[in-house]
Design a protein that fits this description.
This protein is of the alpha/beta class. The protein folds into two domains: 165 residues, Alpha-Beta Barrel (TIM Barrel); 165 residues, no CATH class. It contains twelve helices and 15 strands. The termini are far apart.
Amino acid sequence: MAPSSTAAVRAALRAGRAGAWHGGHPGDPRVGLSVPVRSDADLQAALATLAEAGVSATLLLSPTLARGLDRARLEGHEVGGLGDPAGAPGLDVLAGGPVVTWATPERLRTLNALGTRGLHALPPGTDRPAPGALLTVDPAQLPGVLADLKRLGYRAVPVRNVPELRAGTGRDLFLHGYTWLVEDRFARQHGVIDLAQRADAVMRVAPLDHAPAPLPLPRTAHTAELHLHSPRIVGLASRSALTAYRAYLRSLRDVGAALQDRPELQEAQAVFAVTLFHAPLAQAGFTLLDLPPATARWYGLGFRLLRVAYGTTRAPSEDTPKMAWLPREEFLRRYG
């Protein structure tokens, strides 16, 4: 397939064309796990691994393989499909009801065919889990992925059991483009370290070779700037403000570990953030500093654009950004 064709299919999937799935609640630790099964050996391996882990999943079966299977063998798992959607009626028989989830197609023609049959395509693959995400994992990779999900606080469930499961929309495609063009690009250019591997982790940190105003440090002092994982904190806040606040505080310990373990942060003399959410940081022991008026207006505009981009209707408790900071030693005493 030509790269342009691949890009077109991915864009169509992210926009929810023909009912393609997007995912579920962006603040819920449950992720939809699907496993493509192309042979009886694949099926045996997947079922054994899932049983050992006590996990149910969506098994993506080819209609040809499904013909010789006993429904009891798949007890507790959701039946999905892969390959030619014309064989979906055979999977309906095996599942004892309509199959609704299908493997990610490679061509727009196949995606459209799925939509006409009321089948929802899975979204493009992702290289890391996120709350409410849909993951497709080959049988050989299952043991490692399941162990990682458990370690990071995720819970794997069949696709149909993901809370608030929905199809994609044009806004999802826009957000993907915004994240790639703006946030990911910023992270690459500024060496931002992503500390948001856990399901409830919300922090990123950037090493700086200077101390921006109004920090009471020499201009040449190295510092560490905190950044929020915007979609994660929005998702957690949509569950409850308390959930987001607790995740915020827990994530400060991730920063403490990074200060001690990451070579690029060893010279940082202070940890700071420019944020509208400065009240939680003040409660966490940070000192608040007023920004110069022009700087505050510039940051305020940026934060308003972020709220529009990520669709949050929950306004922060403050509308004027401030700088919150702690000296390195004090930060490590509290969160190291």
